[in-house]
Every structure is written in C-alpha cells, then in structure tokens.
Amino acid sequence: MNEMAILSSRGALQAGLDIEHSRASIGFTWQGFDEMDEVSGDGSAELLDDGSIEIEFAFRNGDKADLTARRNSSSTAC
C-alpha cells in the first residue's frame, strides 16, 4: 500500500492508497485519518490530450474536489 499526505489551511490528511492504473489514468481508494477522525474515499487522475491532468478526489459520503493541473511553460526559475 502506498501513502499520501495532504496539508491545507483547514487541516491535514494522512492516508494509505490502493492503486489501479492504465497508460493515461489512475484510480485509487484510500483510507486514513483527518485530524484524528477515520476517513476513506476514492479518486482518479487522467492525463488529457493537451498534457494537463484532471484529478477527482472524494471522501466517502462527503466532500468532493475536482482539480486540473497544467504544466507551467515559463522558463523563469522560481
């Protein structure tokens, strides 16, 4: 089982992941703890034709987040 940690201004989530994947997508279920409360859910990520990644992350019986990530083409160093 893989692990992930997510930090935000509203708290932190630490969870284990079970992953299934194909060439352009990945699906996962997860379970872990959010500020000491046991939580679980599922999600997916898909590589789109334009090179961006579309991500869906959901808590079981609760909130859901849809995200899109795009590569920054700027050549300026951060």
Strand order of the largest sheet: 1-2-3-4-5-6
What kind of oligomer do you see?
A: single chain
Largest sheet: 6 strands, antiparallel
Note the beta-strand portion: over 45%
The number of domains is: 1
Distinct helical segment count? 0
- Taking the alpha carbons of the first and last residues, their distance comes to 33 Å
Low-confidence segments? none
Order of helices and strands: EEEEEE
Radius of gyration: 14 Å
Q: Structural class, judged by helices and strands?
A: mainly beta
What's the quick description here?
It is built from no helices and 6 strands. It is mostly beta strands.
Properties at a glance:
0% helix, mainly beta, 78 residues, globular, six-stranded antiparallel β-sheet
Structural description of this entry:
This protein has strands at 2-8, 11-21, 25-34, 37-47, 53-59, 64-69. The chain is mainly β. It has one domain. A six-stranded antiparallel beta sheet has the order 1-2-3-4-5-6, with no helix packed on it. The termini are far apart. The mean pLDDT is 77.
Lay out the secondary structure.
Blueprint: E1 2-8, E2 11-21, E3 25-34, E4 37-47, E5 53-59, E6 64-69
Antiparallel strand pairs: 1-2, 2-3, 3-4, 4-5, 5-6
